[in-house]
Amino acid sequence: METNTVIIGLAGVLAAAAPVLFAVIGETITERAGIINLSMNGTILLSAMGGFAVANETGSLLLGFLAGMAIGTLVALLIAFSSITLHVSQVAVGFVLTLLCRDLSYFLGAPYMNIPGPRLPSSLLLNLGPGETSPVVEWLVRLPVVGPLLFRQDLMTFLSILVIFSAWVWIFRTRPGLMLQGIGERPAAAFVRGANVNLMRYVYTAIGGAIIGLAGPTYSLSIKAGWMGTISGLDGIGWIALSITIFGGWNPLRAAFGAYLFALLQWLGLVLQPSLPNIPSQVLQVAPFPLMILTLLLVNISNTEWVERMMAAMPERLRRLIAKLLRALRASPPASLGVPFESE
Amino acid sequence: MDVELRDVHKTFGAVHANVGINLHVPAGTIQGILGENGAGKSTLMKVLSGFIRANQGQILLDNRPVIIHSPADAIRHGIGMLHQDPLDFPPMRLIDNFVLGHEGGLFPNRTTAARDFTLLASQFGFSLDPDAYVDALTVGERQQLEILRLLWLGARALIFDEPTTGISAAQKEKLFSALRLLAEQGKTVLFVSHKLEDVEGLCHRVAVLRQGHLVGETKHPYTTEKLVEMMFGKAISVGERNPCAGCEPTLSLHNFSAEDYRLKVRDVSLEVCSGEVIGLAGMEGSGQGLFLRSVCGLVRAVDGRISLHGKNLTGRSYHAFKRAGTAFLPAARLEEGLAAGLDLTEHFVLAEKPSGFFVNWEESRQLAQSRIAAFNIRGTPVSTVESLSGGNQQRALLALLRVPLNLLLLEHPTRGLDIESAIDIWSKLKERCKQGTSILFISSDLEEILQYSDRVLVFFSGKVTPPLEAAALTTEALGQLIGGKGWEDFALGKGA
Amino acid sequence: MKKKIWVNIAFQVGALVLALLSTTLLLLAAGAPPFQAYAAILKGAFGSAGSLETLLITWSPLLLTTAGVLITFSAGLWNIGVEGQMAMGAIFTTWMLRLLQETSLPPALTIVLGILAGIVGGALWAGLAGALKTFGGVNEIFGGLGLNFVSTALTIYLVFGPWKRPGVGSMSGTEPFDRSLWLPTLPDTELSLWSLTLSLLALVIIIVLLRGTHFGLRLKAVGKNPKSAFLMGVPTWQYSMLAFLLCGALVGLAGAIQVTGVYHRLLPNISSGYGFLGLLVSMLVNYQAVWVAPVAFFFAAVNVGSIQLQLMYKLDSSFSGVMQSLLVLLVLLGEGARQRFLRKH
Question: ipTM higher than 0.95?
Answer without folding.
Answer: no
